[in-house]
Design goal:
Its main location: cytoplasm. The protein is of the alpha/beta class. It is built from ten helices and twelve strands. The longest helix is centred in the N-terminal third of the chain and has 10 residues. The two termini are 35 Å apart.
Length: 288
């Protein structure tokens, strides 16, 4: 396992265990339009041997109007079961850059009752650059039954999020880039206002890693501290649509902060409504 985080594994650890029974590898890559990358196409061209592809859009709640909404435990169980993933497996998830969309899959598995789930530190881009094994062959899948044990306490919905903003009972850490947070850059989704929730602090997901590798614990603490986040208080993580908010969750759990929840609707829900307050600028308490 990686030395600093109990939730990541390094490439050597994974490569030594390729093909072992009970080990499931999941490509959970997902990209913004600005990345100009197609996750499924890249998986088909090359992936870690034995990896299955988890479509972040397809696994979402099919009845929600919002993107990437957490599915019901039943829907999630059916979906990952068709991929041959068991709740008893040791699951390693990865994405291309290393610390972008994979934590979302990590978070979903954890709140569905799987705790032997880890993120590949460095991601597939570094894996391939180092000349480690890859394949274009489709992974053989034996569908199974996935038993989900949903922990709803780790998710926060819109009504409670409105209370958080009004009463400041929890801090808000927003993983979007500085421009989108400050309102100086447009949102990628039509009809969504720019800016952030009142009281939110900006902790860009890119600040949590270097070259695809999660920062050491002391540096992670510094990132949150410089953003004005008090690690002794409750925190709600947010982002554009719930994907990179999970990266903040993983970082918080890594440094021992367990009193956190993820706002699943995130900015697409909040900024897409006409009855929610929006602020612009760098946010309260942030060091610039």
């Amino acid at each position: 396992m990686a030395a600093d985080s109990p939730f990541t594994v390094d490439a050597d650890w994974l490569q030594q265990r390729l093909g072992e029974p009970g080990l499931t590898i999941v490509d959970a890559s997902w990209y913004l339009p600005a990345h100009k990358r197609d996750a499924r196409t890249e998986y088909d061209a090359a992936h870690i041997p034995g990896a299955v592809f988890l479509d972040q859009d397809a696994v979402s709640d099919p009845d929600s109007e919002l993107p990437h909404t957490l599915p019901s435990p039943r829907h999630f169980a059916r979906f990952v079961g068709t991929l041959g993933i068991s709740a008893d497996d040791t699951i390693v998830v990865y994405d291309g850059p290393g610390f972008f969309s994979a934590p979302r899959a990590w978070w979903m598995f954890r709140i569905m009752g799987v705790y032997q789930v880890f993120v590949l530190d460095g991601g597939f881009d570094n894996w391939r650059a180092e000349g480690r094994p890859t394949t274009s062959e489709m992974t053989k899948i034996a569908p199974c039954i996935f038993h989900a044990e949903f922990d709803e306490a780790r998710v926060i919905g819109f009504p409670e999020m409105r209370n958080v903003v009004e009463n400041r009972e929890s801090q808000i850490a927003d993983a979007r880039g500085p421009g989108r947070f400050a309102g100086t850059e447009p949102e990628p989704r039509a009809g969504v206002r720019s800016g952030h929730m009142p009281g939110a602090r900006n902790v860009p997901v890119a600040a949590l890693s270097k070259d695809g590798y999660l920062l050491p614990i002391p540096q992670l603490r510094e990132v949150f501290g410089n953003a004005g986040i008090d690690l002794d208080r409750p925190i709600v993580t947010s982002c554009g649509s719930g994907i990179t908010a999970a990266a903040l969750t993983l970082a918080l759990e890594t440094i021992g902060h367990g009193d956190n929840r993820l706002y699943d609707g995130s900015w697409t829900e909040w900024g897409g409504r006409s009855d929610t307050p929006v602020e612009t600028g760098n946010g309260e308490g942030a060091k610039t």
